[in-house]
Amino acid sequence: MVRSATGRRLHRIAIYGLFAVVALYTLFPFYWMIASSLKSGQAIFDVTFLPDLKFNNYEAILSDGVFLRSLLNSLIVAASVVALSLGLAIAAAYALGRIDFRGRSPIMFLFLAVSMFPQIALLSGLFEMIRWLGLYNTLGSLIFAYMIFTLPFNIWVLTTFMRSLPRQIEEAAIMDGCSPLRIVRCIFLPMMGPALISTGLLAFIASWNEFLFALTFILTDENRTVPVAIALISGSSRYEFPYGAIMAASTIVTVPLIVMALLFQKYIVSGLTAGAVKG
Amino acid sequence: MSGIDLINVVKRFGALTVIDGVDLAIAEGEFVVFVGPSGCGKSTLLRMIAGLEEISDGELRIAGSRMNETPPAKRNIAMVFQSYALYPHMNVERNLGFALETARLPAAEIRERVTKAAKFLKIDHLLDRRPAQLSGGQQQRVAIGRALVRQQKLFLFDEPLSNLDADLRMEMRVEIARIHREVKATTVYVTHDQMEAMTLADRIVVLKDGRIAQVGTPMELYERPANRFVAGFIGSPRMNFLPGMLVREGEESVLSLAGGRHRLSAHDYAGDVSLGIRPEDLILGGGDATLEAEVLLVEPLGGESLVHLNVGDGRSIVAKAQGRPEIRPGATTVVGWNHTRAHLFDKDERALNPRGA
Amino acid sequence: MATGAIRIGLNAKRARTAWLFLAPSLLVLFAVALWPLGRTFLFSFTDAFLTEPDIYAYIGLENYFTLFEDALWWQSVRNTLYFTVVSVSIETALGLAIALLLNAHMSGRGFMRAVILIPWSIPVVVSARMWQWMLHDQFGILNHVLKLMGVIDHGIAWTANPDLVMPVIIAVDVWITTPFMVLLILAGLQMLPKSIYEAASIDGVSEWRQFTALTLPLLAPSIAVAVLFRLLDALRMFDLSFVLSSNSDDTKTVSIYAREVLVNFQDMGVGSAASAAIFLMIAVVTAIYVTVFRLNRKLLGV
């Protein structure tokens, strides 16, 4: 379509206007969260749009050992889940992506089906299993349970990626005397950087944010992860909610994710779409 | 001892038979080229020798022992791939040394062998580069070097030159011939390019539809093709074919073509035949036998020219002439050949020989 | 191979490697998904209690009768379905609109893509807390702004009012998950061949016609997959309701109901029955969706 110069300018203005609306809608809650977290004491209850840059709430939440502990717990859980699910998935993806064997398709289907299981449907059986493994009220229970939503997804995405790697490179490695393990470790792994970053980031985000299992399989405060810790912060009554502290805690939890989202946007999006479009 | 024996080797993919009973003995130090049109099974056969494809039936022996179940790495084979298959994340030096590293050789020895191979292939100034920073020809040299450093007795090449442009292809062809001369490894080389086959091979194996059409030295295949397929495949431009009829008349056979009858020495066969004559064996204006023809086109190639001729019935043939013949398109001329340079094929496309030959 | 058991073919060796590499993942998934699922179904026929899950007796379908006689269960089913249908519809429409907007070739597009990724990537609990604070009846920014604009005189109790709480939850969910839709649809948009639009423009097809006749049908598969993912997610929604309106029956989802029976009332039998029912419900919805989608595809010949 050929438009006049004014028409084109109006079109551009309209689009940037809409960009601004979407950005405001998306970002204002974050601004308000951060602004509120920087107001001290009673000031939070006066609605002013500019923060007064008081760090009382942060001091309070960070001097509370329990919150720091839950931050550390979340970090341990998320990092372990990433390492474990990637390790397992890389091996499985090699088998499913590079080897033609009977039973390949049913297994792919099984992984796909498992990734659709509602978590609640596993709760009682998983509860029993976790107790039986002696993992109840430990971070191990979460690392174990989070395999259910990270592992099938990672396997699926990495399998598609593995399959796209050139066949002759693997054959050259076979001729060079590599065992399958060495092929995966020395040849494929270095070639899979982008896919590993995508799946790793998504597994990290999912584990960092998970709530239902974290709420159910952890009993005591010192083993909780941050989402549960934030959900359980409460005042003495409904009207004395420590919103300043909650906003400060939320900000702390959110900042690493926002940084990740901004830095690795490309990888996160490609991981998401690889899981959905090719799935 | 590092010869290769293929004994009634068969490859099936499901219901499809791709290699249909191949028997072949390759001697130690020999350079054998598998050639054939795409889909003839030449690459599959090579991959079966390498161990990259399972052998469905029959037996593969290397240096006398059965290898069917031996994993590729234990067959003492080095292989060069069409796409070079260099490891993109390693520099040239590591690419060359990777197999030795895998075999846990001492670092000093790896360096020595890598340096030697790099010098030999004139890539010693590229050792720090990544494959992506190399030209196609350089990548090809690295791929060959990777096979060389392993110092195996057996080399496999899977269409190694088909990704290169014409100049480089020539250069690398010479290079591969030099390597074979100096290393003296038993070599199996797959290509669809009959020119590569002719120039490189000690013996050529022509494959068609998963079977061997003919095995022989390049000159044998050129001079005495066993069937019409091989006759058409070897030689460039292709051999000309004209349909005819062979009839026995007393102590002679008579070949009837659209343009006339020709007396030949006695053949046991009588019936439909095709006559095959290579463009370089056609003589403008002479020969034991001649046809009238209309000149369609003259393609000068410099030292020689290709003359396209219409010999009636809309059939065209190509003759190769020295220099630039003084004829113009549209003119009528006489084209002929000598009987000793003519090939006859029966209706099953097998080569026919005179009685007693 | 014909000549004895010692000779293992190369393909068989490869297959053995495959199973070896798969084994750890299969084992983990068996332990974390298949076995627990089986046990959940099994427990749904027993009178087990969470405190002592080893001691139980089979009581047939009794748990299911208890479950189906509970009005609250049916309300949570209604809530879940209502939430799913409304939120996914809005998210799809809004997601499509924003995706089309972001598909415009403008500078700042990459920045916008990163921006809309943020709500999706943070914990739902944090989003819920954030909105809870903005929607606070006395001190919330929303009521404050509405008061400034003169729309209301005194603050609205957004999450305490039974008529408002579900729309509020849906609105927050739209804020959280529209980005997911946008990104998937955007990926679909970027796979569309440019040449057909050029051809259509040359043929003088209007932009609106290009959208309805080209973009939408070509985009349908991408949208359908994105919707399926959202559907599965919405049907098992838990955290948002739990944090934003934990005590309200008006927003109780089936996941919250099942966990409440299982953990708070320790009734493993009925809780498992509810879990099993949810599993079947989601399986049925998925099956119907996939079948309808396939049928449509066939009819459209895509």
UniProtKB/TrEMBL annotation, chain A:
InterPro entries from the UniProt entry: BP-dep_ABC_trans_perm (IPR050901), MetI-like (IPR000515), MetI-like_sf (IPR035906)
Subcellular location: Cell membrane
Family the entry assigns: Belongs to the binding-protein-dependent transport system permease family.
Pfam families tied to this protein: BPD_transp_1
Annotated organism of origin: Shinella yambaruensis
PANTHER family, per the entry: INNER MEMBRANE ABC TRANSPORTER PERMEASE PROTEIN YCJP, MALTOSE TRANSPORT SYSTEM PERMEASE-RELATED
Keyword hit for Cell membrane: yes
Keywords (A to Z) from UniProt: Cell membrane, Membrane, Transmembrane, Transmembrane helix, Transport
Domain of life: Bacteria
CDD domains tied to this protein: TM_PBP2
Sequence ranges assigned to domain ABC transmembrane type-1 in this UniProt record: 71-264
Record bears the keyword Membrane: yes
Membrane spanning stretches: 13-34, 75-96, 108-127, 139-162, 183-206, 241-264
The encoding gene: thuG
Protein name, entry field: Trehalose/maltose ABC transporter permease
Membrane topology of the entry: Multi-pass membrane protein
UniProtKB/TrEMBL annotation, chain B:
Entry keyword Glycosyltransferase: no
Cellular localisation: Cell inner membrane
Membrane topology: Peripheral membrane protein
Chief site of localization: membrane
Keywords: ATP-binding, Nucleotide-binding, Transport
Gene Ontology MF annotations: ATP binding
InterPro entries: AAA+_ATPase, ABC_transporter-like_ATP-bd, ABC_transporter-like_CS, ABC_transpr_MalK-like, ABC_transpr_MalK/UgpC-like, Mo/tungstate-bd_C_term_dom, NA-bd_OB-fold, P-loop_NTPase
UniProt keyword Transferase, yes or no: no
Domain ABC transporter span(s) in chain numbering: 4-234
Cited PANTHER family: MALTODEXTRIN IMPORT ATP-BINDING PROTEIN MSMX, MALTOSE_MALTODEXTRIN IMPORT ATP-BINDING PROTEIN MALK
Family designation: Belongs to the ABC transporter superfamily.
Protein name: ABC transporter ATP-binding protein
Native organism: Shinella yambaruensis
Lineage, highest ranks first: Bacteria, Pseudomonadati, Pseudomonadota, Alphaproteobacteria, Hyphomicrobiales
Automatic annotation (TrEMBL), chain C:
The entry's keywords: Cell membrane, Membrane, Transmembrane, Transmembrane helix, Transport
Top-level taxon in the UniProt lineage: Bacteria
Pfam families found in the cross-reference section: BPD_transp_1
Family annotation (SUPFAM superfamilies): MetI-like
Transmembrane regions: 17-37, 81-102, 114-134, 164-189, 210-232, 270-292
Localization: Cell membrane
Membrane topology: Multi-pass membrane protein
ABC transmembrane type-1 domain: residues covered: 77-291
Family: Belongs to the binding-protein-dependent transport system permease family.
UniProt-listed PANTHER family: BLR7065 PROTEIN, INTEGRAL MEMBRANE SUGAR TRANSPORT PROTEIN
Protein name per UniProt: ABC transporter permease
Annotated organism of origin: Shinella yambaruensis
